[in-house]
Amino acid sequence: MRAEDDTxxxxxxxxxxxxxxxxxxxxxxxxxxxxxxxxxxxxxCGVELESVDPNAISLAxxxxxxxxxxxxxxxxxxxxxxQYTAAIAGARKDKTLWRNRAAxxxxxxxxxxxxxxxxxxxxxxxxxxxxxxxxxxxLMANHEYLKAAQALNTAAKLMPGSKDIEERLAAARGMYxxxxxxxxxxxxxxxxxxxxxxxxxxxxxxxxxx
Length: 210
Fold this sequence. Notes:
By secondary structure, the chain is an all-alpha fold.
């Protein structure tokens, strides 16, 4: 029996192990891509990813990252996002690329996308203070101050003594407190407004007004 026939009959677990072995031999890690993503990339590029030279991938990622950093520094944030996206396509496990794209996305108003990228960076390394910091700033931009303070507090614990993190944390806590007080004042005002309406209706009822 041919080897390829044996492969088709392998149970799912063995298929996964064989795929990991192929990735290791190839040098290009496909483990963070699902099959749909791989097929889409292969169709767009006209190549099979397993046949791509891993050194070529590494060079392409490095070049895209270099361009992305340059565009960010020059204020060309949309181009920066595009190049970080290209770099991520070849290095899905690079937390720096995810959090840097989050920073670029914040600059073009893509707040939810920035939160997504920041979460991805944190998932890749929960001990990375910079990823938690980026998550905190992304949440602040989306006016989620309590969650922002929690993320920044984690960053502060991982990187004690950072003035920037401490300042952002204080700002997030302050904004959350202001928001909480505004909501309380709003609820009190609504309650008073409701009571005034009830009193007015009672007075009209007592006077016989329709």
